[in-house]
From TrEMBL, chain A:
Entry coiled-coil feature ranges: none
Family: Belongs to the glutamate synthase family.
Residues of the 4Fe-4S ferredoxin-type domain: 19-48, 73-103
SUPFAM superfamilies: 4Fe-4S ferredoxins (SSF54862), FMN-linked oxidoreductases (SSF51395)
Annotated source species: Pseudodesulfovibrio sediminis
Protein name: glutamate synthase (NADPH)
InterPro entries per the UniProt record, alphabetical: 4Fe4S_Fe-S-bd (IPR017896), 4Fe4S_Fe_S_CS (IPR017900), Aldolase_TIM (IPR013785), GltB (IPR024188), Glu_synthdom (IPR002932), Helical_ferredxn (IPR009051)
Composition skew (Low complexity), residue ranges: 112-121
Origin superkingdom: Bacteria
UniProtKB/TrEMBL annotation, chain B:
UniProt protein name: Glutamine amidotransferase type-2 domain-containing protein
Family annotation (Gene3D superfamilies): Glutamine Phosphoribosylpyrophosphate, subunit 1, domain 1
SUPFAM superfamilies: N-terminal nucleophile aminohydrolases (Ntn hydrolases)
InterPro entries referenced in this protein's UniProt entry, alphabetically: GATase_2_dom, Ntn_hydrolases_N
Amino acid sequence: MLSERPISPSTLSRKDLPWQIKWDINACTKCGRCTSVCPVNAIELGVFRKREIKTSMGLSAKPVNEFSTYYGITQRTDPAYACIGCSMCNMVCPNNAIEPQRQSDSTTLQFQNNRGGQSRTRGGRRNSSESLLDQLKFIRISMLTDPALDAGRHEFEMRTLLGRVLSPENEIKCFQENGWKPPVREIYPLVIGGMSFGALSPNMWEGLQMGVAYLNEEMNMPVRICTGEGGCPPRLLRSRFLKYVILQIASGYFGWDEIIHAIPEMKEDPCAIEIKYGQGAKPGDGGLLMWYKVNKLIAAIRGVPKGVSLPSPPTHQTQYSIEESVAKMIQSMSMAWGFRVPVYPKISASSTSLAVLNNLVRNPYAAGLAIDGEDGGTGAAYNVSMNHMGHPIASNLRDCYKALCVAGAQNEIPLVAGGGIGKNGNLAANAAALMMLGASMVQIGKYVMQAGAGCLGSEKDRCNVCNIGVCPKGITSQDPRVYRRLDPEKVAERVVDFYLSFDTELRKVFAPLGRSTSLPIGMSDGLGISDKDAADRLDIKYVI
Amino acid sequence: MCRLFALTSRDPVSPMLAIDALNVMKEGHDGSGVGLYLSGLGGPWEEFKDYPILSGIFTEPGLARVFEYMADKGFRSIYSAMFKPEVEPPVGTPVRGTYASIAYKIPKEWDDLPKAVVDQRLVQMRLDLRKEGEESGQIMVFSFWPDTIMIKEVGDPLAIGEYLQLGREELYARHILAQGRQNTNYAINLYACHPFFIEGVGTMTNGENTAFIPIKEYLQSRGVTGYEGYQSDSEVFTHIAHYTTKKLGLDISAYKHIITPMNDDEMADHQDREMLLNLKRSCRKLIIDGPNCIIGCLEDGSMFMAQDRKKLRPGVVGGNPEIGMYAFSSEICGLNAAIPDRDRSKDFQPMHLDTAIVGPDCREVLQCSQKDPLALQR
Ligand code: SF4
Ligand code: SF4
């Protein structure tokens, strides 16, 4: 080591890093597991040299220098290798000799993580733990009914409709005239939102599909999962499980060839088709699958060469305008399955959500609208998009629901809300609140990764390396050496666990509100908030 | 919880019969209000069956304003029953003015209008007057429809019955809905008092309707004149009955399919399963929740009772075909008081799938189950 290290503008000390490694020399057995597991090589074997001056008693002998060498762990301070706080090192350490610690006052790294003029990209979610959804309270507690509803004993109808529902007048007319009716699916109101096969590892994907199949076939819960862009494994397309799947088509059209070719051999129709125009985490941005994750399998399913980055355009480039796009794509996708499958667009919550919605109201084939708020997650995006772009879901959803009420179409076009549901763990409460603000169903992605597979990401910029294929848990990696860590069976088990407990919690919310025979969609009188402005904006009660 | 009592009879009877029955059930309500819906009117009204009757409460200037408004529209009054109490009102009841029911002759120009337009205009006139009254405080209108009188007042039913002399012959009616009010979630407001009425459909309910806001918003978005007000969380039941029968053209036995559709298992082997499933989906917003008992009367004089599947203590229907009188009561003691002379073994408590209907002929209780084949068109 040089006695005078070169200090440049971008030289960082350990103190500059938000995550710092605490290593205990006394407990460490020097097994080396931590350094081998660290996804970003933030730690390495350190060789330390120590000089001690030994002075003997009396004046006869002169003091001497004693040099010793010992081994330990050092943390790198190069921004490219900064510790991400994943804590994998601790997970594998037999003695708990090492762990990352968050230093909230160490903020210097963020000015340095654009090396080579490259802005930071990452996976995960917005780095803010605030949540308006968590502030909503359920206030209409029904004390007058006889008997009061009992969450544990009463029968609850926890189903919702995905698909264009006719108005009662048209329904009766259609029935009498034996006319064509848009397809409608009766599904569970918590949907696993689009996370593509390319973004998630095969093991994660398999685990999710198994969990969903189990919930449907053993627990009688019609849970649906969306594929995300990138296509769907051919075996699944040709299996009976396809009916539990919502196929997504996004602006890159990745994987669509595969799907279209499989249509003649499909045993079942898919649950629905989702046309993705935008996602809440990076509104106005397309999909992004970075080259690290495009291995042979993914390349084959997506129909692209391997090892290249796969950005999708921000919107469907073959169409001239959103009106045209919504109309034509819904039409052609419906046509592909003989008008038997609901087709709906997914957009990021934005100030133009209402325009899209108005468009859909006039389109007899539109099966719903999915809106993704700013707190949504993603596999890869620019940090700036994730942290600063987007519209909160609550007010956007509320506006859309109210617009539907004005048009008298609130039962006709289901709204699917997503983006930050359960980001602080309150899945059922957040979902119930969104339903009461007008959502027919809600979708979750990040929560599934956290609860189903132990994703380490947090709202404090922890982990978030989903984009570069080194996911320490094997969730978002296409490298078999990494995703081997994830046992699909265990993922399936966890998915079933949290769905069942979600169901119980939802009942515990709905029963005191006096709602059991139908979901409380739009039951806004049951909601209150202690923030006057939020109450006014959402048109709910202000309670303190 | 409110107490409900309804009578349907071949011959006109005094509304006091119903009030007395309410009094028997007094334990269950706090006497904070009473509402009466009368149709199939007897006595002097027999002659004026087709003339819309405006009923409400008016102050002197209010009454003058009503006459002026009606004259403007070309309506001429041909008969009226006015009642202005001379005595002190019971405790808690304010002095309001004249309780009036005035029958009007519809102007000639309206003769060529289709019935639907006439109906809608009548509703609009009622709403206009109500609105004016809400601003001035001089006018309160509860109904404006042929062969229909509505009376509402706050106070104990029996005391009000005596105060307003509800036993008068000019109030004799064949179909009577009466409700003793228990003041619940909302402030006392006469318009919030059951029964509610729209275009020949009157209903009353006890219980709490937790789905009130979504249902209200849905009904309001249907663009039907008269779907407004909503001072009580169960006012929507009347409008759903109106919507079912008049807008969707369904039989009243379908009402229960709308408000409390069957679940999948119950529907599985139904011969009209497909239609019912479609109806359940398209009318999803009208599904009620909460233990509710609903009693109502339709334009043709048929009366019905239905309840939510959560209702632990259902209402009861019974009567005597010989004397041609049936009663719908939220408690059996009310029925016993009003029609003691009946075959009690034939009393019917409609359970979670049933609707009880007594036709205008008052001959029998029709027991419809949701499991029965659909009778679609009225
Ligand atoms: S916390 Fe994670 S990134 Fe940091 S040193 Fe440990 S394993 Fe590496
Ligand atoms: S654990 Fe994997 S999926 Fe979760 S934030 Fe880290 S890299 Fe992303």
